[in-house]
């Protein structure tokens, strides 16, 4: 009698359990697909990254250009002061 009840319960729950498992499998497949796509994107980004030597060159070039910009700003300010000074002398 106990076995019959277990068999009945199994068959009564089977469709719901099957649907739940299928839904879970589908969800996991979607997550796996998304993860693989993300890994693919990261792989492509990694391939496009410069190597260490190239990265150091880029950083060095950036620092050089920043220094040149700083020097140009300083020169610009000095020239403005000199221009203003000369204008004042011309007015006198």
| Helix-strand category | mainly alpha
Q: What value does the average pLDDT take?
A: 92
Helix-strand sequence: HH
How large is the share of residues in beta strands?
A: under 5%
Structural shape: rod-shaped
Number of domains: 2
Number of β-strand runs = 0
Unreliably modeled segments: none
Distance between the termini: 121 Å
| Biggest sheet features | none
Oligomer: single chain
Count every helix, treating DSSP H or I runs of 4 or more residues as helices. Answer: 2
The rounded Rg comes to 36 Å
The share of residues in helices is over 70%
Please explain how this structure is put together.
The protein has 92 residues and is mostly helical. It folds into 2 domains: 1-49; 50-92. It is 95% helix and 0% strand. The chain contains 2 helices and no strands. The protein has helices at 2-48, 52-91. The protein starts with a helix and ends with a helix.
Secondary-structure blueprint of this entry?
Layout: H1 2-48, H2 52-91
Concise description?
This protein is 95% helix and 0% strand. It has 92 residues and is mainly α.
Entry keywords:
0% strand; 92 residues; 2 helices; 2 domains; mainly alpha; 95% helix; rod-shaped
